[in-house]
TrEMBL record:
The keyword Hydrolase applies. PANTHER family: AMIDOHYDROLASE-RELATED DOMAIN-CONTAINING PROTEIN, AMINOHYDROLASE SSNA-RELATED. This is Amidohydrolase family protein. The lineage of its organism: Bacteria, Pseudomonadati, Pseudomonadota, Gammaproteobacteria, Chromatiales. It comes from Aquisalimonas asiatica. The keyword Signal does not apply. One of its GO terms (molecular function) is hydrolase activity, acting on carbon-nitrogen (but not peptide) bonds. Belongs to the metallo-dependent hydrolases superfamily. ATZ/TRZ family. It comes from the Bacteria.
Length: 506
């Protein structure tokens, strides 16, 4: 099937035009863009879309999210990460969730994402107490059904929880330590075999679904698992996706457990390279940033989640200056409470303006849009497939009505996209050449029926989860002590203050 988009205002995010808007046509054949120009004549049988008065741009890329949190959306507030995780990633008494609930949970996020302009996301999918192939398959099926492009992980933790949090062995009572120790994490061998089977089953399904390896964080995984996962990622050309120094507690973790920063620890293991994508990277030193830039890693800036959890502000200008690729993500659908990437784009455009009086260092709208599209695709190692409008790339596109209040009056379109638009002007969404949203409605699934089915299952789930919360609340006072202890420690980095052009100010 061929489609010709005529008379659009195009923001390509790639090629010679970059973020500069221009008028033109786009020819799509099958799943890919085959021609971009002006006055392209329609061939017989081609579907013509009149895009006069419309903005056509690449679909947004959510480079880091956890759909597993969707069932806790709107449930928690005013908790820092380590305390919040006791409930959203329970240590004690978690039971495996059923496949249908996981399917609906994944669908909930994917439907919101598509309707608000995200055509591609990276789901760093974690299950308590550990992931099964059937659970992973349920999420993959949801993404296949709804029509989104997704990179889905086998997220893994293979160390005892108490050995992943600094000073936990000193603060947590012995009885609780013994109880936690009864849950055996997966072995390195078991995880690598799981990853190989998942890759065989799910990778490149429908031309849209990819599998990646995702060791949770260097302090949460054994050295042999980190190295084994990296070997698979390199072999398969998929991301090695992990989390590093999201919080001050994690900033204290490297020195406490390894006698060096977590980034230096990764470097010393040979685990900083262009195939590595790191979520957060807030509490990084200048030395860390130099290591990251020299290695050519990617990071995902999860600006809203980082604010809600009080984690801090990532030094994005310094990271970009060092040569680090920076994408944007929502992070979890409980630490953000939404899958809307336009919210993230606006927050990223705003927050760095308060980090320094040197306004020449503030992020501009073009940089933010790049982070939300092409740079995000690079974090998933699929920048050759998506993230920009270029010949040969997949047709992952947004059709935006420019006659809405968000674009009236119309000045700099890039500023309108970053600061004015929230997804409500989207008329259609295309993924892989197929229209998956038209006039605000999903074309491949019955959204109302799926939401109603999920609502029917929630009372039973919340009854179970309330018991899990009560069990894990026993850890709260001890992790709270660790949080307060780390808050007072000097690790030579301050990401709760502001960065000026000459370094860090308290």
């Amino acid at each position: 099937m061929s489609t010709l988009i005529q008379g659009a205002t195009i923001v390509a995010m790639g090629g010679n035009t970059g973020t500069e808007p221009f008028q033109g046509d786009i020819l799509i054949e099958g799943d890919s863009i085959t021609k971009i120009g002006k006055d392209i004549p329609p061939s017989p049988g081609v579907e013509v879309i009149d895009a006069r008065g419309k903005l056509v741009m690449p679909g947004l890329v959510n480079a880091h999210l956890h759909t597993g949190e969707a069932l806790y959306k709107g449930r928690y507030d005013n908790l820092p990460l380590e305390l919040w995780m006791l409930y959203s990633y329970p240590v004690l008494d978690a039971e495996p969730l059923g496949e249908r609930l996981i399917y609906l949970r994944s669908m909930l996020v994917a439907m919101e994402a598509l309707k608000t302009g995200t055509t591609c996301f990276t789901d760093d999918m974690y299950e308590s107490p550990q992931q099964s192939m059937a659970q992973l398959g349920a999420a993959v099926q949801a993404y296949d059904d709804v029509g989104i492009r997704a990179t889905v992980s086998g997220h893994v933790v293979n160390k005892n929880y108490l050995d992943t949090v600094p000073f936990a062995r000193e603060h947590v009572p012995a009885a609780l330590q013994d109880e936690i120790g009864k849950s055996a994490p997966p072995s390195t061998e078991a995880y690598l075999e799981f990853a190989k089977e998942a890759y065989t089953r799910f990778h490149d399904r429908s031309g849209r679904i990819r599998f990646m390896v995702a060791p949770s964080a260097p302090q949460r995984c054994t050295e042999d698992l980190l190295l084994g996962a990296n070997e698979l990622a390199q072999q398969w050309k998929v991301p090695f996706h992990t989390h590093i120094v999201e919080t001050k507690v994690q900033g204290c973790t490297g020195p406490a457990l390894y006698g060096r920063s977590l980034m230096r620890y990764m470097h010393d293991l040979g685990l900083l390279h262009p195939g590595v994508t790191i979520a957060h990277s807030i509490w990084v030193s200048d030395e860390d940033i130099e290591l990251m830039g020299d290695a050519g890693v990617s990071i995902v800036h999860n600006v809203i989640s980082n604010q809600k959890l009080g984690a801090g502000i990532a030094p994005v200008r310094k990271l970009l200056g060092a040569g680090v690729n920076v994408g944007l993500g929502t992070d979890g659908i409980c630490s953000n409470d939404s899958a809307n990437m336009f919210d993230v784009i606006k927050a990223a455009g705003l927050i760095h303006k308060v980090t320094t009086p040197e306004y020449g260092r503030w992020l501009n709208a073009g940089e933010v849009l790049n982070a939300g599209t092409l740079a995000g695709a690079k974090t998933a190692r699929i920048e050759h497939l998506t993230g920009s409008i270029e010949v040969g790339k997949r047709a992952d596109l947004l059709f935006i009505d420019m006659k809405t209040s968000a674009f009236t009056p119309c000045n700099d379109i890039r500023n309108h996209l970053v600061y004015c638009e929230n997804g409500s002007s989207i008329e259609a969404v295309m993924v892989n050449g197929d229209i998956v949203v038209r006039d605000g409605k999903l074309t491949r699934v019955d959204e109302a029926a799926l939401l109603e089915e999920l609502r029917q299952l929630m009372p039973e789930f919340l009854s179970y989860h309330a018991k899990v919360e009560r069990s894990n609340s026993r850890l709260f006072p001890y992790i709270d002590e660790i949080h307060k202890k780390c808050a007072l420690m000097d690790i030579g980095v301050n990401r709760l203050g502001t960065d000026d052009a000459y370094g860090t100010r308290q």
